[in-house]
């Protein structure tokens, strides 16, 4: 094989066909769009979220999918998720840590449980899933890819969302920390954070607790769609093995901050 042919074979989504992707928060929004994109590219996709019915409906659209209802605040549930994937397909090649949420819970007046929920889902569950996925990837050829779906809130602090922002600043730290750990291990596993601005998902309704406020949030200008974020993940995943796309910052063209 010539050098140019060998380089071509290392790039693109072709090399991921038949490989296993695990997507958390797959029951809606970005997670659903990512699962469709990866399934459409020929990957086997494990779907993790709490809403089983939604996962089953999504699985019916995909060539090969595994539904694993999962509560990411429960360590035993996460263990069961990885056990199910290992039993079915032997382990994970691509980990998409997509699950996350925000609550309107300022540092001076927020409810402790809201802070705890954000920290457990956005940070701790991401850590546990990453550890288990990397364990699989190292056993399966040491050439996988870990994605953290972060936020523009991990790069600046929007008013009133200091605690949520703190969880996303933590994701930035974890992304770089993981990159350094993998390099020290001599691993070829790549890590990418995707940091979108406003995306039309269920996030705004969960954050504000109001459908009306969510509609208002997404009507001020044309916001990103979940498929836009999925496309960024496919781009980073399909880049040549020599290329690590470390952090993609993407915002709607008309978003002011």
Keywords:
257 residues; alpha/beta; Rossmann fold; seven-stranded parallel β-sheet; 9 helices; 47% helix; globular; disordered N terminus
CATH level-two architecture: 3-Layer(aba) Sandwich
Give the rounded overall mean pLDDT: 93
CATH class descriptor: Alpha Beta
Tally the helices.
9
What Rg do the Cα atoms give? 18 Å
Strand arrangement across the biggest beta sheet: 3-2-1-4-5-6-7
- CATH superfamily label: NAD(P)-binding Rossmann-like Domain
Biggest sheet record: 7 strands, parallel
Number of domains: 1
Q: Strand share of the residues?
A: 5-15%
CATH topology: Rossmann fold
Q: Structural class per helix/strand content?
A: alpha/beta
Order of helices and strands: HEHEHEHEHEHEHHHE
For the secondary structure, the number of strands is 7
> How many angstroms does the end-to-end distance come to?
49 Å
């Amino acid at each position: 094989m010539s050098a140019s042919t060998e380089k071509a074979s290392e790039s693109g989504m072709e090399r991921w066909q038949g490989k296993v992707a695990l997507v958390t928060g797959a029951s809606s929004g970005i997670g659903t769009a990512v699962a469709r994109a990866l399934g459409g590219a020929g990957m086997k996709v494990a779907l993790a979220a709490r809403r089983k019915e939604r996962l089953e409906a999504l699985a019916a659209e995909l060539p090969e999918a595994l539904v694993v209802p999962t509560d990411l605040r429960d360590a035993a549930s996460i263990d069961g998720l990885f056990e199910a994937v290992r039993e079915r397909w032997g382990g994970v090649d691509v980990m998409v840590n997509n699950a996350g949420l925000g609550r309107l819970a300022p540092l001076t007046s927020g409810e402790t449980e809201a802070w705890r929920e954000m920290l457990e889902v956005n940070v701790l569950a991401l850590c546990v899933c990453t550890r288990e996925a990397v364990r699989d990837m190292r056993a399966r050829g040491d050439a996988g890819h870990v994605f953290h779906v972060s936020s523009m809130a991990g790069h600046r602090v929007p008013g009133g969302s200091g605690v949520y922002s703190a969880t996303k600043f933590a994701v930035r730290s974890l992304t770089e920390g993981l990159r350094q750990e993998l390099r020290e291990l001599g691993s070829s596993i790549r890590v990418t954070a995707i940091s979108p601005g406003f995306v039309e998902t269920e996030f705004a309704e969960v954050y504000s607790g109001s459908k009306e406020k969510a509609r208002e949030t997404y009507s001020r200008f044309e916001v990103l769609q979940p498929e836009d974020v999925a496309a960024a993940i496919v781009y980073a995943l399909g880049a040549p093995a020599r290329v690590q796309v470390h952090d993609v910052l993407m915002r709607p063209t008309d978003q002011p901050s």
